[in-house]
Amino acid sequence: MKNSEIHELTTEEVIARINEEKANLTKMKFAHTVSAIENPTRITKVRKDVARLNTELTKRKAEAKASAATESASE
């Protein structure tokens, strides 16, 4: 998943996608532990996607908090 794709998602979609990817990562790790999966680099890619999604979510929360502080200061 590219950053440009992540920017296009709504906050609710980002949260949903994080939950999906975390569940997928858990399943992949378990499958890899039981028997080697075909492409173990997919685990790294999914982990990085989760990190990108979390970064975007944190950025959006910070922006919302900053805009709320700005609005309350202007009143």
From TrEMBL:
Keyword list, A-Z: Ribonucleoprotein, Ribosomal protein
Signal peptide start and end residues: none
Annotated GO CC locations: ribonucleoprotein complex; ribosome
GO molecular function: structural constituent of ribosome
GO biological process, one term: translation
Gene3D superfamilies reported for this sequence: 1.10.287.310
Family from the record: Belongs to the universal ribosomal protein uL29 family.
Protein name listed in UniProt: Large ribosomal subunit protein uL29
Natural source organism: Daejeonella rubra
